[in-house]
Amino acid sequence: MTEDVTVVCAWCNERVSGTGPLISHGICVSCAESFIARLPREYLRSIAEPDGTVTLFSGHRLVIPSDDCAK
Ligand SMILES: [Zn+2]
Known about the structure:
The structure is a single chain. Strands 2-1-3 form a 3-stranded mixed β-sheet, with no helix packed on it. It has one domain. The protein contains 2 helices and 5 strands; from the N terminus they run βββααββ. It starts with a strand and ends in an 8-residue tail after the last strand. The chain is α+β, with helices and mostly antiparallel strands. Helices cover 23% and strands 27% of the residues. Bound molecules: zinc ion. The site of zinc ion has 7 residues, from α1.
């Protein structure tokens, strides 16, 4: 059923996935990266995997920039 849906980025309108007639909104990788970059570092750490990455719904993994070694 997901093949009926084209997911477009709600921020820049770029197609994210799919080619179907129905339109759903998501977020593309570049917008997700700029969005995540603006989130508080502490929040990102709280949702990050143990290896310091955040996995988006699309399966793309973003590495959280770390400017210190908090361990
Ligand atoms: Zn976008």
